[in-house]
Amino acid sequence: MTIDIARARAETPGTRHVVHLNNAGAALPPQPVLDAVTAHLALEATIGGYEAAEHANGRLEGVYDSVARLLACSREEVALAENATAAWGMAFNALAALPGEGFRPGDRILTARAEYAANLIPFLQASRRTGVAVEVIPSDETGQTSVEALEAMIAEPGKGAVKLIAITHIPTNGGLVNPAAAIGRVARRHGIPYLLDACQTVGQMPVDVEALGCDFLSATGRKFLRAPRGTGFLYVRKAWLDRIEPYTLDHSGGALAGPDRYTMRPDARRFELWESNIAARLGLGVAVDYALSWGLEAIRDRAFALADRLRHGLDALPGVTVRDLGAERCAIVTFTVDGHDPRAIKAALRGQGINLSVSSAPSTPFDMDARGLTEVVRASPHYYNDEAEVERLLAAVKAL
């Protein structure tokens, strides 16, 4: 499949107003997503929130089928969430408190150098509460997480058991794509739970949870998937559903079976809470279907090609340094310009109608500190961007 750029742009109202190269932050939604959200809000205003939810029940159920197709899993393995942080946290906290298998003093969590701060803080919180150690897997010569180093750490004599491997597939601060499938094979071979943060992956490239080998995967809707903010989801491998219980459970994920007993849903939806943003979830389902209609391979090829064009153009500009790492590089491009503060660059280009972002050291401290970086400019093209927008960004950077 190939991308019809004219159609993609025509169906993206925002392209008529801005050069949006901040898809790693929050992408411009397509018209069908906008229509789905606003139509449901209008229905709530007309007939009432509960009544509108009943009216939309069939479409809401369809969202689970759509996400399952996106991830190549079953609908029973999908839970919807308000954001990726909530989805990730539900899985992590459940693992930390797993009866008879949870974290204990001397146990270890292995994570990547470019791990996101929103994940690092719960690691450290768990360490304070349980005594589990948090260890960083070294990177290889390309900058990606070293699979060989991971193997060596698992087998390291005199060390405690590795209770979790948790990495970010695509970090927030550069074009790196970590070798998630190879890490998954290591995790399976050693019987170690594997939690994958796929926030920047989903919607940018194909995702097959079986091929990746992960037991849990969290993602957001607002980035490359082009869904509304306040949406996300969690994948839970079916084999775990007989073993794991949410840290927080309500009457949506469970049911009272007597005055002193309760049961849980048999599927991943035990991780959901009852109240949710129905309009946003409908928008999420439409966004997933929309991405699938283009084809994730075609989306990846188009977005990666635009990013490569941008990297080559930036490399040719004096005083500009591209900061991306990895053997495989995605549609996130980071750079610095000698003598120019990244936030000043972002502000200056926004004044010209070009949206960028800034990644700072507190977001990925291990990686940024290791490379001596405090902030980088981040540009993230998507398939609906065109070559003229890339050239406009390059001209603006050259003129700084």
From TrEMBL:
Superkingdom per UniProt: Bacteria
All copies of domain Aminotransferase class V, residue ranges: 20-393
InterPro entries named in the record: Aminotrans_V_dom, Aminotrans_V_PyrdxlP_BS, PyrdxlP-dep_Trfase, PyrdxlP-dep_Trfase_major, PyrdxlP-dep_Trfase_small
Transmembrane segments: none
UniProt keywords, alphabetically: Aminotransferase, Pyridoxal phosphate, Transferase
Stored Pfam families: Aminotran_5 (PF00266)
Family under the similarity heading: Belongs to the class-V pyridoxal-phosphate-dependent aminotransferase family.
Protein name: Aminotransferase class V-fold PLP-dependent enzyme
Native source species: Azospirillum formosense
